[in-house]
Amino acid sequence: xxxxxxxxxxxxxxxxxxxxxxxxxxxxxxxxxxxxxxxxxxxxxxxxxxxxxxxxxxxxxxxxxxxxxxxxxxxxxxxxxxxxxxxxxxxxxxxxxxxxxxxxxxxxxxxxxxxxxxxxxxxxxxxxxxxxxxxxxxxxxxxxxxxxxxxxxxxxxxxxxxxxxxxxxxxxxxxxxxxxxxxxxxxxxxxxxxxxxxxxxxxxxxxxxxxxxxxxxxxxxxxxxxxxxxxxxxxxxxxxxxxxxxxxxxxxxxxxxxxxxxxxxxxxxxxxxxxxxxxxxxxxxxxxxxxxxxxxxxxxxxxxxxxxxxxxxxxxxxxxxxxxxxxxxxxxxxxxxxxxxxxxxxxxxxxxxxxxxxxxxxxxxxxxxxxxxxxxxxxxxxxxxxxxxxxxxxxxxxxxxxxxxxxxxxxxxxxxxxxxxxxxxxxxxxxxxxxxxxxxxxxxxxxxxxxxxxxxxxxxxxxxxxxxxxxxxxxxxxxxxxxxxxxxxxxxxxxxxxxxxxxxxxxxxxxxxxxxxxxxxxxxxxxxxxxxxxxxxxxxxxxxxxxxxxxxxxxxxxxxxxxxxxxxxxxxxxxxxxxxxx
Length: 582
Ligand SMILES: *[C@@H]1O[C@H](CO)[C@@H](O)[C@H](O)[C@H]1NC(C)=O
Ligand SMILES: *[C@@H]1O[C@H](CO)[C@@H](O)[C@H](O)[C@H]1NC(C)=O
Ligand SMILES: *[C@@H]1O[C@H](CO)[C@@H](O)[C@H](O)[C@H]1NC(C)=O
Ligand SMILES: *[C@@H]1O[C@H](CO)[C@@H](O)[C@H](O)[C@H]1NC(C)=O
Ligand SMILES: *[C@@H]1O[C@H](CO)[C@@H](O)[C@H](O)[C@H]1NC(C)=O
Ligand SMILES: *[C@@H]1O[C@H](CO)[C@@H](O)[C@H](O)[C@H]1NC(C)=O
Ligand SMILES: *[C@@H]1O[C@H](CO)[C@@H](O)[C@H](O)[C@H]1NC(C)=O
Ligand SMILES: *[C@@H]1O[C@H](CO)[C@@H](O)[C@H](O)[C@H]1NC(C)=O
Ligand SMILES: *[C@@H]1O[C@H](CO)[C@@H](O)[C@H](O)[C@H]1NC(C)=O
Ligand SMILES: *[C@@H]1O[C@H](CO)[C@@H](O)[C@H](O)[C@H]1NC(C)=O
Ligand SMILES: *[C@@H]1O[C@H](CO)[C@@H](O)[C@H](O)[C@H]1NC(C)=O
Fold this sequence. Notes:
Layout: H1 2-21, E1 31-33, E2 37-38, E3 43-45, E4 51-56, E5 65-70, E6 80-83, E7 97-100, E8 106-109, E9 115-118, E10 132-136, E11 142-146, E12 149-156, E13 164-165, E14 170-174, E15 179-180, E16 183-188, E17 191-202, E18 207-212, E19 216-220, H2 234-237, E20 241-247, E21 251-258, E22 265-269, E23 275-281, E24 286-293, E25 308-311, E26 318-320, E27 324-326, H3 329-333, E28 341-343, E29 353-362, E30 368-370, H4 375-383, E31 388-394, E32 397-402, E33 408-410, E34 415-422, H5 426-429, H6 435-467, E35 472-473, E36 476-478, H7 481-487, E37 494-498, E38 501-507, E39 513-519, H8 526-538, E40 547-553, E41 556-562, H9 569-573
This protein binds 2-acetamido-2-deoxy-beta-D-glucopyranose (11 copies).
């Protein structure tokens, strides 16, 4: 008697669940009609399902935003292409709504129904009306148009880009208002508010420039010659994108499209201060970088902030100068190093200081040249001025720096200078004992010496392991992915592309030049890949470029060759051999 009842109850429960789950947290549509609202538990999905629009919280951020993201791309976190209210987040999500009013305005309302963002279409040549509709397109463009004339656009998100430029969109210079549209980086990986880096068009020279904090121009694409920008020859290498320049009395702009419409691609002003063009590889489930500019991460202006040091020799790129510590460790964790570093021991003007040498560097920007006859005089000049933070004495005479030290890069060779820091006994001298500072000094000295030796040993080991990695199969080296990331400076210098992937230039720690080929669409398993690689190793022909090794980690498959300028790996290696046979 009881069992059937229970069974029936279960059935009802299941039925109820099925029904109540059916209107899942999305409006199964790409359109919002006048008078309708999008709620925090709903999304608009474009017709083919390429893009989604809805509320989101980036990372662990407590702030909420309205944005557009790739609906089919699944990495650890969503990839956002547009954010509506990047300057004005919503602090409380429940009862917020994105409402398309009867007058045709699209407005984001917070829980107390105060507008935090809106399209204000009142200046449009054709104002919105109760027949206005909002449609999310499969190109990632959110379009407000008149219901009776959907060809007339009242407002569109492509005219208000955040950090991403999608195919079909444009980054323009308005010749009537004399203002440039900007792609502006996120502040950090969890905060879409405007960061320090922006990309804009200079119509006079037909070139794009990257600015730091709206003022400091540190990279230019070089002028457009009709096919490429002079500093970005990569654009022609992979006949994938069609960039073109348009200009009329109202505006000048570049627009681009992709020849293969089924490719998912994006151009982003990254918070690393670099512009990046990436495509989604469905096979390996990752964003594949086609090109990056500036190529060297340390070319980005003030990347590591005041008293930070940039180095290309390993990750992370930014460190603090000796005697300094990260101003905001939390921001550094979120890939925003722009705040730089502060003194470990904050000092007042009269406190005792000493100079620490730094060699093989690119010197900080904005030196002040002084007349000083010797190194000692130069040092004295710096010592006697409280705002002096560093000096250098060399063939150019005496240079001093006042205030923040910006843009220092550690290199294999370069200049030397002296940074002013707290004297090593300053913090302990306050205790008044005369012998304690001495003892501490000796202890510290010994510790530093031992530490340096250990560091040296460790660095040698690390370097060796990068050079001649772990396991060796036959005469081939099995590199780790990280080894190759370091050797190729995170795949920054692209030599070319072929049918099986792209080739990057790299340098091993023993200065050997290598060419690293990232294979695309190679789906075979680890064991099979290794067998095939061993086979190439044994059948190398004298005319072929020598294969040094390979990397196989997760879904990543890479081949490492000796670097030979002007040789195509595809024509040499794969003429005779197909990838299947390898
Ligand atoms: C979405 O949220 C609203 C109120 O916030 C609620 O009435 C509605 O039932 C929710 N819909 C779903 C499918 O959860
Ligand atoms: C609309 O026009 C007014 C007056 O010309 C101007 O002040 C306002 O900024 C414009 N609004 C937008 C969104 O362009
Ligand atoms: C839309 O506006 C027109 C006039 O502008 C009016 O005649 C019509 O009734 C309105 N429709 C709705 C659904 O409000
Ligand atoms: C939009 O334009 C196309 C041709 O350009 C035309 O065929 C279509 O009817 C127009 N749609 C509307 C709603 O006017
Ligand atoms: C950026 O420029 C503004 C002035 O335009 C200035 O107040 C701000 O401090 C600058 N930011 C940094 C990080 O230097
Ligand atoms: C490239 O794009 C421009 C502008 O959209 C277009 O006129 C041109 O036909 C395109 N070229 C090719 C080869 O598709
Ligand atoms: C931009 O406008 C000015 C007048 O304000 C005009 O002289 C110039 O030719 C225009 N630029 C273009 C590219 O049409
Ligand atoms: C320039 O803008 C005006 C006003 O919006 C428009 O009528 C005209 O067609 C535009 N010219 C071009 C070449 O797009
Ligand atoms: C276009 O890209 C898709 C997906 O990457 C691929 O399957 C297809 O073969 C490509 N088409 C051409 C003509 O290259
Ligand atoms: C930075 O991240 C590391 C590991 O991801 C974590 O252990 C550390 O607590 C974080 N520091 C801050 C200040 O958020
Ligand atoms: C430090 O030197 C600079 C440049 O010589 C000078 O402008 C500044 O007034 C000096 N500051 C002090 C406190 O002497």
